[in-house]
Write a structure and sequence with these properties.
Length: 93
């Protein structure tokens, strides 16, 4: 049986007042992070936030593209696309 994987398009806004979801922008979810984009701090904060918000282990998350950009594509191992979208909707409400 193949492993479940899904992808999440994100628009990250660093140096925000607080960390959390910021709604949708086109196909991407907006994530506001308190961390600054310095020495990978924002990427680490993003993965920590997603780990908590989605209820998946940190090892299940992988930044596929956009490590140096605000627009990111994150792979989530162990969740179907439908389950991922459900969890994002629930945690962002």
């Amino acid at each position: 049986m193949p492993e479940l994987t899904s992808q999440l398009k994100l628009r990250v806004i660093p140096r925000a007042k607080r960390t959390g979801w910021g709604g949708r922008r086109g196909e991407a979810w907006v994530v506001r992070l308190q961390a600054a984009p310095v020495k990978g701090a924002a990427n680490a904060a993003l993965l920590d936030f997603l780990h908590e918000a989605l209820g998946v282990p940190g090892s299940a998350l992988e930044i596929l593209s956009g490590e140096q950009s605000r627009d990111k594509l994150v792979r989530v191992h162990g969740l179907s696309q439908a389950e991922l979208e459900k969890r994002v909707d629930q945690s962002s409400a």
